[in-house]
Amino acid sequence: MEMITKMVLERPVVIYSKSSCCMSHTIKTLLCDFGANPAVYELDEVSRGREIEQALLRLGCSPAVPAIFIGGELVGGANEVMSLHLNGSLIPMLKRAGALWV
């Protein structure tokens, strides 16, 4: 858990993903298209990925990926990010976190 806390405070937007997950790819594409430049951790490719995945599940991420943190706070998974986007809240949230400058 402490490892996740440290990782999510290093960048305005952090995505925990798996390289084979289509929903993770969708969220990465969406945020990159906005210019957010998230830190992406592919749990099937990084050391301690399984440990991080278990910690995400304990935080309430179900499924564990994608797990999106904005401004150091857990936003949730793909459904939550898409809901924020559709209701117009995502871009202001990214701006407040310092991920967007426009």
Automatic annotation (TrEMBL):
One Pfam family here: Glutaredoxin
PROSITE patterns, A to Z: GLUTAREDOXIN_2
Location(s) in or outside the cell: Cytoplasm
Domain of life: Eukaryota
GO CC annotation, single: cytoplasm
Keywords recorded for this protein, A-Z: Cytoplasm, Redox-active center
UniProt-listed InterPro entries: GlrX-like_pln_2, Glutaredoxin, Glutaredoxin_subgr, Thioredoxin-like_sf
Chief site of localization: cytoplasm
Glutaredoxin domain mapped to chain residues: 13-75
Family: Belongs to the glutaredoxin family. CC-type subfamily.
Name the UniProt record assigns to this protein: Glutaredoxin domain-containing protein
Organism per entry: Microthlaspi erraticum
Phylogenetic placement of the source organism: Eukaryota, Viridiplantae, Streptophyta, Embryophyta, Tracheophyta
